[in-house]
Specification:
138 residues, Rossmann fold, seven-stranded mixed β-sheet, 4 helices
Amino acid sequence: MVLTATSLSELNNIAQQILAFAGAERIFLFYGEMGAGKTTLIKALCQELGVVGQTSSPTFSIVNEYEGARGRIYHFDFYRLKNQTEALDMGYEEYFYSGDYCFIEWPEKIPDLLPLNYTEVHIVANADGSREITLNNI
């Protein structure tokens, strides 16, 4: 499935479509260049899931936890990981296999640790400022 966002005002609608596309899947892997809009899209997804209050990138903390209307949500940013051992040390399995929503930025940093099933979200920033969002269920 391919979605196009031409403005920030469309993100809530796109977040609804992403959640509907994923169905029961709760693991989401976000791919895209720096500045493509991964964190911004995750904020819209959190809002759709009923998170009240501020959400932010867990760039330095690696993971942020939010409480939504449908349960816990974990937001990971693995950009600063030096190797996969750091994810092992933080106990990533407890999060990934909790049954809670997991939004994972920079999953390419932990290729051997990814679960078997997930929804891929690829974001490409176009020259006109729009974003093309491609979804795949794996």
